[in-house]
Amino acid sequence: MKFASFTLAIMTSALALASPSMAENYAFDIKGQHAFIDFRIKHLGYSWLLGRFDKFNGNFSFDDKNPAASKVKVDIDVASLNSNHAERDKHLRGPDFLDVGKFPTATFESTEVKSSGDGKAQIIGQLTLHGVTKPVTIDAERIGGGADPWGGFRQGFTGKTKITLADFGITKDLGPASKEVELTFNLEGVKQ
Amino acid sequence: MVIKDTPTGYGLISRWLHWGMALAIFVVFGIGVWMVGLDYQSPYYRLGPDIHRSAGILLLIVLGFRLLWRAFNTKPVGTELTAFERAGSRLVHWSFYVLLAVIMVSGYFISSADGQPVAVFDWFSIPAVTKQQGLADSAGFVHRWLAYGTMALALAHSVAALKHHFSNKDQIMRRMWNGPPTTKKQAS
């Protein structure tokens, strides 16, 4: 027994030594809710309408020595949409828009990360929304990372992308100023 | 003019409540079906729901009054009906009351699910009693299907009333339209 754990310890440290800059895995801080996915769309071209998704989850891998090797995956419970107006939220969840009965989950999975240095990157990936999968590019920036006061280790990012509703099969006409939606991700991950 | 109900027919108040509410309910139902299909640019996109909500709340208040009025009135007897018909009509009448109450309360929950009050025209508003994520959807499901159910029941109710009037040629429908027959001649 002792011998086995000793061998394991040796192997683990050998592995750690062999790959000093291996990407580490992080899970979104959902428990403490240091993670936000917001959207905004223009109302008539006169103002911004803001909303968010209350329920989602995901994880990423990150290595500050090699940011281009990073990966991220997000799963959004679309029905958790919240724009602070019950009737509108009901309408947005319904068949005119997101049709959450048929398409309960939206996902984003990165396929490529193009780092431009100074903590910025373009995250290219596949966004599945309303049953349609399309490539999107998220302009991302690392806000910071390091040890937290409770013995954990965290990394935090912000990212933004813009999608055209019709590209994802959402064709209800909201007027010429409201064809695109901006999605903003503010995500903090805790090292696993 | 007979205000209250008598054993032979419905008084003025009950008849006005019956026909007035029936008309209002058909109109509000029609607005409901129509408004959910409106384009965002339609001039009625906001007005339709405003009228639907306001009229619904007012109808709920009137329904409360109607049940009170019914409780304080004698019920016309239906001697021309069989026991089965009497039980059937009683079931239909009470189903209407329950359905309407649930439809209107669920409608209120759709609009107030995020804790916002429901405005009745520019007149007054009913505060929210709860704030629950997802309540608008479940309330909406109940609201929609019970409304269709009520319309089906209204059809059955109308067919039954017309059958009594034109086929049985009895007083069942007349007592809701004309009220109790005037008995002054016999009395004097």
Summary keywords:
heterodimer; A: about 190 residues; mainly beta; eight-stranded antiparallel beta barrel; B: about 190 residues; mainly alpha; two-stranded antiparallel sheet; 6 helices
Report what the structure shows.
The complex is a heterodimer of chains A (192) and B (188). Chain A is mostly beta strands and 192 residues long. In chain A, 13% of the residues lie in helices and 51% in strands. Chain A is globular, with a radius of gyration of 20 Å. In chain B, strands 1-2 form a two-stranded antiparallel sheet. The radius of gyration of chain B is 19 Å and the shape is elongated. Chains A and B meet through α2 of A and α3 and α4 of B.
How is this fold's topology laid out?
The complex is a heterodimer of chains A (192) and B (188).
Chain A: H1 2-18, E1 24-28, E2 35-43, E3 47-53, E4 56-62, E5 71-77, E6 81-82, H2 86-93, E7 105-115, E8 120-129, E9 132-147, E10 153-164, E11 180-191
Antiparallel strand pairs in A: 1-4, 1-11, 2-3, 2-11, 3-6, 4-5, 5-7, 7-8, 8-9, 9-10, 10-11
Chain B: H1 12-35, H2 44-71, H3 83-112, E1 118-120, E2 124-126, H4 135-167, H5 174-177, H6 184-187
Antiparallel strand pairs in B: 1-2
Helix pairs in contact in B: 1-2, 2-3, 3-4
Q: Report the sheet-strand fraction of chain B.
A: under 5%
Report the total helices of chain B: 6
Q: Helix/strand-derived class of chain B?
A: mainly alpha
Oligomer: heterodimer
Residue runs with pLDDT of under 50 for 5 or more positions of chain A: 16-20
Helix and strand element order of chain B: HHHEEHHH
Structural class of chain A, by secondary structure, is mainly beta
* Largest sheet properties of chain B: 2 strands, antiparallel
Distance between the termini of chain A: 26 Å
Global Rg of chain A: 20 Å
Mean pLDDT of chain B: 92
Taken from the alpha-carbon principal axes, the silhouette of chain B is: elongated
Kindly state the percentage of residues in helix of chain B: 55-70%
The total count of strands of chain A amounts to 11
Residue windows where pLDDT falls under 50 for at least 5 positions of chain B: none
Order of helices and strands of chain A: HEEEEEEHEEEEE
